[in-house]
Amino acid sequence: MCPLPLAVAAPRTPLRLLGRGLAAAMSTAGPLKSVDYEVFGRVQGVCFRMYTEGEAKKIGVVGWVKNTSSGTVTGQVQGPEEKVDSMKSWLSKIGSPSSRIDRTNFSNEKTISKLEYSNFSIRY
């Protein structure tokens, strides 16, 4: 079981947008981007998925993350371009505190007209 992070950042979404949901809040934030990713290194058994979900929610992107049978972590991120770029940086350089990221591959990067997800989730 992963220990809970010591501090949880407060959401940056204005209160007036909370009722409309994250997808509605992002629909007015400019061009949307989608990218698939796979993270290699010591990324399983180190709470990587939980921290990825937390970072995605903090940044304000949607998508998913899951472990693979080959020992990597894979997923998809969608949102405004600058937020997706922030998440790409986190997935490449930071990760969970106990992880070791050897490399992160990004693929299928494209502009999208609308979000395919309403939140960020851990898949099993």
Structural write-up:
With 124 residues, this protein is an alpha+beta fold. A 5-stranded mixed β-sheet has the order 4-1-3-2-5. The longest helix is centred in the last third of the chain and has 13 residues, at 81-93. The model is unreliable at 13-20 and 22-27 (pLDDT under 50). It has helices spanning 15-18, 21-26, 48-59, 81-93, and strands spanning 32-42, 62-67, 73-80, 100-112, 120-122. Belongs to the acylphosphatase family. InterPro entries: Acylphosphatase, Acylphosphatase-like_dom, Acylphosphatase-like_dom_sf, Acylphosphatase_CS. The active site is at 49, 67. Keywords: Hydrolase.
Rg on CA atoms, Å: 14 Å
Shape: globular
| Strand residue percentage | 25-35%
How many helix segments?
4
Main β-sheet description: 5 strands, mixed
Write a brief caption for the model.
This protein has 124 residues and is of the alpha+beta class. The protein contains four helices and five strands; from the N terminus they run ααβαββαββ.
Secondary structure layout plus pairing:
Elements: H1 15-18, H2 21-26, E1 32-42, H3 48-59, E2 62-67, E3 73-80, H4 81-93, E4 100-112, E5 120-122
Parallel strand pairs: 2-5
Antiparallel strand pairs: 1-3, 1-4, 2-3
Protein name: Acylphosphatase
Family: Belongs to the acylphosphatase family.
EC number: 3.6.1.7
Features:
124 residues, alpha+beta, 5-stranded mixed beta sheet, 5 strands, 28% helix, globular, Acylphosphatase_CS
